[in-house]
Amino acid sequence: MLIREFQDPDSTKLAAIGQFLLKRAQDTDAVKPMSVDAFVSLAHENGINMTPERLETLSVQPPLNNIIDSIQNGEIIWKGSQTPQSGDQKMSVDQARKTVNQMAKRAIDLK
């Protein structure tokens, strides 16, 4: 028997929806979580019978546990979409140019 024969077909569809939303959030640099109600509504629109309780249960099982980090206060936290830590802040364009110029000078000096 194949693994997919044991999986809930709805969880596979939910994983596809979740993966799409996760990639979309990453493409737009969004770090905002999604409400459980909005996700449940999206599932219903795609023909999946879903409740917030069922989503919470499925979110800790494969394949959704690879996409959903946690569900807290009625919001879905996607894996990899947490707010960056203070040390992970992006540098400004001017800082990046200055750094590149300094590195180029060092490279020239090595010759």
Which key features would you list for this structure?
111 residues; mainly alpha; 48% helix; disordered N terminus
Describe this structure in words.
Mean pLDDT is 80; it is low at 1-5. The chain has one domain (3-83). The radius of gyration is 21 Å and the shape is elongated. Helices cover 48% and strands 10% of the residues. A three-stranded antiparallel β-sheet has the order 1-3-2. It is mainly α. The longest helix has 19 residues, at 9-27.
The total beta strand count reads 3
Dominant shape: elongated
Q: Structural class, please?
A: mainly alpha
Low-confidence stretches: 1-5
Portion of residues in helices?
Answer: 40-55%
Layout: helices, strands, pairs:
Elements: H1 9-27, E1 34-35, H2 36-45, H3 52-58, E2 68-72, E3 75-78, H4 93-109
Antiparallel strand pairs: 1-3, 2-3
Summarize the structure.
The protein is mainly alpha-helical and 111 residues long. The protein has helices at 9-27, 36-45, 52-58, 93-109; strands at 34-35, 68-72, 75-78.
